[in-house]
Amino acid sequence: MRYPPEQKTRSREKLVRASASLAKQQGFAGSGVDALASAAGLTSGAFYRHFEGKGELLSAIVEMELETTRSRFSTLEPRNEEQLLLAIDTYLSLAHVRHPESGCVLPTLASEIGRASAETKEVFERALLELLAVLSEKVGDASVAFALLNQCVGAVMIARGLATDSAKRQVLEAARKSARESIASLLSTARVSDDS
Q1: How many CB atoms within 10 Å of residue 70?
Q2: For position 87, which CATH number holds?
Q3: Among 117, 106, 13, which residue's Cα sits nearest to residue 62?
Q4: What are the residue boundaries of the HTH tetR-type domain, all occurrences included (predicted)?
Q5: Is 27 part of any domain?
Q6: Per-residue pLDDT tens for 31-74?
């Protein structure tokens, strides 16, 4: 029986979303095709109707996840300190640390992407640069945006490796403080420049 193209598209999106959630929680390399397909309520046979292998799925996960993050940040007003700080506080939260399955792909899968194929790395680089372009516009400075991204991702990665909430909070609070100082300094410099 042939399915309409839109059903195939919906099945593929469901597979990518469910696989992303599982991979962010349990790791991509350690999740077999059966587990990834099962997370979406599909069989491994259905998986291979959409993807030639796990590497192709990882590329699709990277693309979808970074597009979701980019879309989320694109709603912020440029150089709006309150919105930027709220976004950073949300990212650097215990909730984000505790729930990788619903969080950003960068702290969970960046190291696995580093061991992936050249094709997956190319998808990652393109999607990351698109995200950075949005962040640069919102922050007002490309190098500060890149530094903030690195700092936030690193803090979440480290916090996830710690045993106690008090240690996790300490890491997150230090990163929040540094991010707030960077943004305040950048925006105050921008205001002085605008006033001159």
Answers
A1: 17
A2: 1.10.357.10
A3: 106
A4: 9-69
A5: no
A6: 999 999 999 999 999 899 999 999 999 999 999 999 999 999 99
Closest CA to 110 of 69, 154, 163, 68: 154
DSSP 79-132: T-HHHHHHHHHHHTSHHHHH-GGGS-HHHHHHHHHHTS-HHHHHHHHHHHHHHH
Question: Would residue 41 be called left, alpha or beta, if left means φ above 0 and alpha means ψ between -120 and 50 degrees?
Answer: left
159-170 pLDDT, tens per residue? Answer: 999 999 999 999
Residue 190 resides in a domain: yes
Range(s) of the domain holding residue 120: 58-195
Confidence class of residue 9 from pLDDT cuts 50, 70 and 90?
A: confident
pTM: 0.89
Domain contains 170: yes
